[in-house]
Amino acid sequence: MPTPQRPWFRRPLVLGVALASVAALVVAGLVWRSGGGPVQARIVEADTDRFVSGVSHSSTLSIPDARVTVETEVATRAFGGRADNLDAPRGGRLVVANLTLAHLRRESPRTTVANTQVRLRAGGQTVQLPVQTGSERRATLVHIPGDGSDLEVVVTFAGRTQSVRVADGRRTMGDFAPLYRGDASGYAPSMSVLMDRTQSAPNAAVEYDARQYWNLHRLPYIEGVGWAPAGREWVRVDNLRMQWFREPRQRSPRATFDSTAGASTVTVNGQRPTHGDPTAQGSADSVRSFYAAPDLIFSVPVGEGFDLHVRVPVTAVPDESNGVAVAAQNIVIERKVRYAAVLTPGGAA
Amino acid sequence: MTRKQIMVALVVVALCFGAFAVVERGRAEVGERIASMDVTGDGVDYVAPVPFGQLSVQVTSGDEATMGDDAIRAPRGGAIVEVRWALRNGTNNVGVSPVWPGASAAQRREPPIDLDLVVAGRSYPIVRGTSASADGGMAVIAVDGDAENARVRVNSAGRSVLAEPAPEDASTRPAQSVSERCNRDMPGKVDGVTCDLTAVRVAYVAGLGWAPTGHEWILVRGAQAGLQPEGVFWMDQANGDNANYQAFGQPNVTLTSPTARLVHRAGSPQATAFGVALEQRAYAVRTGQPAELTLRFRQQGKLKEPAPGQPAQRIADRSLTLTLE
Fold this sequence. Notes:
The complex is a heterodimer. Chain A is mainly beta.
């Protein structure tokens, strides 16, 4: 009886080759998908002149006294430069990042730069960008893992961190939230200026007409002082001045005055400042100033309203009237201002 | 059917699947979000109020999303839509913060904002939990159906609205604020009166929430009126001199509106040295309708020094009107 002939596709050799081919295809597919290993986030060119044709975003983050702007463009290929075109690693993207740090004030730019770190974060990995200031605009070419959809800009300043997700702009503000109240003063003032007059009642023993100036800031961090305690923010009162608008008169003779004798106080919700001494009379900016305080710092719960009370006792010494000495009068110039509660940016986090 | 025929049929089917996969490769699925690509075309601009700010949205639709030479095509019968949005907080040079007295810390926080793309009756999430202080963003989404009428739905603080087409003049505003003071050039014969009126028109106020449906809030804080510190007002005489009157009795200060409805008051009027500061108020005015506010001050006065032809007593009566469009 002849041995039954197997069809060709059931021969062991054919089956073996087929199985080996399938296995090879599976392995090749896995290797192809993985790109030969995980992509590491890293700087490819620190000062690149390459360009990419991708989708660009501009992300802005506020830090004390400065603003960090990072422009990112995500792509799969970078053109130009000193060498050939550069392709993104398989499973990753190329990012061209432009970082600028703009100071809102002229003071302490070096301190701000030294205190600031800017990173790109994607796929759980971070890469630190060099921080530059002003007109130094240098692009950095970076590899990131993934398709760029989770790309974040992370800024650390003086030990605290905030971030913004590039694609959808969502922020994690942390302790930086008060800096996002906006520039429009009515929205929620980070700074307000008071210029007002205080006058004695008509026919008072000493008639006076004084005006006050001060700037008031709500800040999470003050250079040299540090971060406000948890859940609170600093209130800084600076350039506090009191001036005579019209010089005081005691009845008919004119009076000269002295504010150094009395103990001036400046309080917020009845509390003295945590930094600065209001009793010290600072350098008056003109002969008209009879009281000038150094910078004063208080702390209040974030966003809460508060009462600011400035109280300056002065002694009015009348000039002699027709050779007749008139008794000196002690008067108190004071000003109470209620600052309304303000918004807290950043949602319910 | 022989075994050989079955094998041939399977090979043909496999080839068809392969060919279909090759043809359909690079075509997005409905609802798919496409990262790092954009859509070329003319965008349509929309705006919507959000708590404590303003949202601007641009919607662009097309057949494909691209990045350099790479492209992803729209699903069959669908489109790819790019949504770019920007958020602006603040109320533009406003003297009144949109925080109602007594608002809790939770009410003073920005409520989260959710955006959805609406195409052919179907919603596609754009972003969740953003806020007026967040950066803007961009999303590219593959959708089913005709995207010509794509709109963006804005959900925040319990209200859901579709963003409206942006006005052509592009002078969109998150809020409007008007401030006015009495001054010597104002018409009227009486002088020596001081008055201040600042109001803001906003959609949302911390502590009050959204204005009633179809309305916006008009917030007035610190409206006040009085006399100059000396407590004197005066009337010009024909000879160029003033007839001075010393105030007596209680000053009367009112704030009225023919178009806006008073809904909330906080506190009570306070006497100042020479006049009255009114309590904070919240009016509701219909969206699109101008809100007119009139502050009126009346004060009796006695002639301070004899002046020929002048009555012994007069009433200082000044009013100040401002309009928020």
